Request: fold
Amino acid sequence: MDSLLLHGGHPLEGEIPISGSKNATLPLLAATLLAPGFYRFTNVPKLKDVRTMSNLLRILGAKVDELDHELLIDTSHASHIEAPYELVKTMRASFYVLGALLGRHGEARVSLPGGCAWGPRPVDLHLKGMEALGAKLELDAGYVVASAYPLRGTTFEFATSSVGASANVLMAAVRAEGTTVLKNVALEPEVTQLALFLNRMGARISGIGTREWSIQGVADLQPADAVMIPDRIETGSYICAVGMTGGKVKLTHADPQQLPTVLDKAREAGLKVTLGAESLTVERTSDHLKPLDITTDIYPGFPTDLQAPFMAMSALASGESRICETIYTDRFTHVAELARLGADIRVDGPTAHIHGVKELKGAPVMSTDLRASVCLVLAGLAASGETEVKRVYHLDRGYEKLEEKLTRVGADIRRIEGDL
Ligand code: UD1
Reply:
């Protein structure tokens, strides 16, 4: 397993191009199963999770060609309906194919994803939504076996706003007979991109961008092309990097409109953030970071995926910060690793109390999940001495060319193949 070796203390200066969104690409790839034919996706991030979803499409009979930030997908012969455990267990988003397979074939056999480093992460809302559409669901040897002849329009309200469940149920609903009304749907930009894409395929979804969708089922859908939206979580992570190291970095190919609450918090911390049409420039103008009070929430609230990076930044603030995690209340595995670098953090239930310290000191630390890993890299960029972040395969799932992008703006970071 690879590690990253960092020597901290270098202010970042220059430009970092933001990649296409991982979390937008994954459901759109699943959606290609809904209509046979050719699709061309551009601005696709080169990431392990995207390769995993491409492999799942291949298992289901699709042809996927990977070019430079581009995917050519042919689902003309995607006639298989089983998503195997070996693959689904490595990436929860594989579960998205349930809705698409039901929508296209009226049947599916998809492995349950199983546990996750952040706690149980259930899929009950995905399943309840499919059942509301008339799908018959059974559990067989860890697989959800679903059939629906046919799917029928219904009114269904998600008990909790869920990105995955909204996307999954939507992919089934676009092919259901009659009208489906889905309430309390997710507003995250990645879900909105999926709904807009499905409409380009011929679906009839209204209410996109609100909490209630009305979906007129259609008998046929056609392939469409898509350009992936910028990755708002990658953008937010690099904002924290500048906050922690100082300097001035322009984040290009970004969409500042996707980050309302995040930019507010970055400014509250004392960063100067200047917006362009497709870029934002982040600068640390003072020696001191101000403490923050953050509560994660569904979009447009503060994203749980940026909780760990902002915690790393708050570890260096002058004063007490408080971060309350409301989406995944167990998502604090990075706290113990940040402590190894000298951070002073106390967790009390869903709330972390961060007592800012003057400096972090390099140490060997271990990645536990994607966003926890990036927060350790950010901490290592600011720490004195040498930091070794082990098990960085988590990072490769969600941050394209992280070392290359950071090296180009002045960081001292390199990959060591195999653990040190
Ligand atoms: C997606 C993102 C992930 C992000 C999360 C929250 C992808 C591939 N992943 O994950 O990076 O952290 O949104 O923004 O896009 N829940 C249930 N039952 C369900 C489904 C969800 O109770 O069936 C709960 C979850 O436990 C959680 C909340 O709903 O508390 C939100 O989870 P959800 O939005 O579904 O997250 P994911 O789609 O898994």
About this structure: The mean pLDDT is 95. The chain has 14 helices and 24 strands.
